[in-house]
Structure formats: C-alpha cells, structure tokens
Design brief:
The structure is a single chain. This protein is mostly helical. The chain has five helices and no strands. The protein folds into two domains: 92 residues, Histone, subunit A (Orthogonal Bundle), CATH 1.10.20.10; 74 residues, no CATH class. Helix 1 crosses helix 2 and helix 2 packs across helix 3. It is flat, with a radius of gyration of 28 Å.
Length: 168
C-alpha cells in the first residue's frame, strides 16, 4: 500500500513540475513577443508567430543549458549555491564573448599600428597640411614632456572580465 501512495506522490510532483515549466515557457514566450513587437515598431517590420515561437523556444533551451552549466560549476566548487564566479565561468565559456575578445585584440593591434605610423611620420619630419592640426600637434608634444619618451603600451590583461571591467 505504501508503494501506491509513493507512486501517486511522484505523479503529482511530475504534474506540478510540468505545469511550472509550461508557465515559464509562457512567460518567456510573452516576453519575447513584447520584445519583437518593440523591435518591429522601431525597425518598421513584422515578426510572424512562428518566428516568435522559434525565438522563444531557443531562448528557453539556452536558459536551461545555462542553468545546468551553472549548477555543475557550483558542484565543482563543492558549493550548493550558485555565485558570481560561476556566472563569470559561464560567460568565459560563451562563444559570443570569445568573439568579442578576438575583436578587441584586433582593434588594439590596429590602434597600435596607427600609433606606430604616426610616430614614424613625426620622426621623419612630416608636417600636417592643416596649420591648426600642426599647432595642436606641437602643443601636444610640449605637453607630453619634451624629450621624454612615450610610455610603452602594456599588453592587455588576459584575465579581464568585460562585465565588471576588472582585471589583474
């Protein structure tokens, strides 16, 4: 008899879990619909119901994956509570964030290259055609410290976390 009671309890718990999941899916679907409506008005376009449903389902599945990963990170740290460090690990694992790091690296290389070209032109005696720019350039050179070499650029820290702007 005890087994029949346990089976009914487990079945009731499964129904509650299913109802809760359906409410969450409905909330995500509603929110995605509202966001699509806002973007549609701004961009003067319309999203089909199928598109909104697909975005909602993808969002819900991604959130489930994030939740599982966060739980595993906390377990790995021998904790039962998910904390900020777990979220940072999740963000590092993200392909989109990695792409941002690569873009940042490329931008830094480009800017460093532009500064090198500017320094090379200044050393070779190149003068700016615009006299106003030349005046600003000479003021800048005097302000920098007349003869003191430019501070060498530090390599970007690899432990930089973009959301909190913290680094070593």
């Amino acid at each position: 008899m005890a087994e029949a009671g346990d089976g009914a309890g487990a079945e009731a718990e499964a129904e509650q879990r299913t109802a809760y999941t359906q409410r969450l899916r409905a909330a995500v679907h509603f929110t995605v619909g509202c966001l699509c409506e806002e973007v549609g008005e701004e961009k003067q376009m319309e999203f089909s119901k199928q598109t909104i449903a697909a975005i909602s389902e993808t969002t819900f599945r991604q959130c489930e994956n994030f939740a599982k990963d966060l739980e595993l990170f906390a377990k790995h740290g021998k904790r039962t509570t998910i904390n900020v460090d777990d979220v940072k690990l999740l963000a590092r694992r993200s392909k989109a964030l990695e792409l941002t790091k690569n873009r940042k690296s490329l931008i830094l290389k480009l800017l460093a290259g532009l500064l090198d070209v500017d320094d090379h032109l200044a050393e070779s005696g190149y003068t700016y055609s615009n006299t106003e720019e030349a005046g600003e350039r000479s003021l800048e050179e005097r302000a920098v410290g007349a003869g003191i070499p430019r501070r060498e650029q530090k390599a970007p820290c690899k432990l930089f976390f973009w959301k909190t702007f913290s680094h070593c």
